TrEMBL record:
Organism whose genome encodes this protein: Sphingomonas dokdonensis
EC number from the UniProt entry: 1.11.1.21
Annotated keywords: Heme, Iron, Metal-binding, Oxidoreductase, Peroxidase
Residue stretches spanning the membrane: none
Manganese keyword on record: no
Gene Ontology biological process terms from the UniProt entry: cellular response to hydrogen peroxide; hydrogen peroxide catabolic process
Cofactor(s) named in the record: heme b
Assigned GO CC terms: cytosol
InterPro entries given in the database record: Catalase_peroxidase (IPR000763), Haem_peroxidase_sf (IPR010255)
Name assigned to this protein: Catalase-peroxidase 2
């Protein structure tokens, strides 16, 4: 069983870098539903960075965030992460 969220936070999910924070703050996000029906967030801009499919070469998907990720962006205390991510 999974939570039904389907997607990746970054365009290169196996690479450890700061792209999670860059993507979180760079894009505006809208609430959508995964193919399994779970609530998740994808970029409003349909031309935004995409992530590769895990199984089908050449297929891509929109980046995905969970509500807890979006909370980091809009909460005034955690919004300081934006400044931290720029210094990394």
């Amino acid at each position: 069983m999974t939570n039904g969220i389907e997607g990746s936070w970054t365009p290169d999910p196996t690479k450890w870098d700061k792209s999670y924070l860059e993507n979180l703050f760079k894009f505006e996000w809208e609430q959508t539903r995964s193919p399994a029906g779970a609530l998740q967030w994808t970029p409003v801009d349909k031309s935004a960075t995409r992530t590769p499919d895990a199984h089908v070469s050449g297929k891509t998907h929109p980046l995905t965030m969970m509500t807890s990720d979006i909370a980091l962006k809009i909460d005034p205390v955690y919004r300081n992460l934006r400044a931290v991510s720029r210094r990394l």
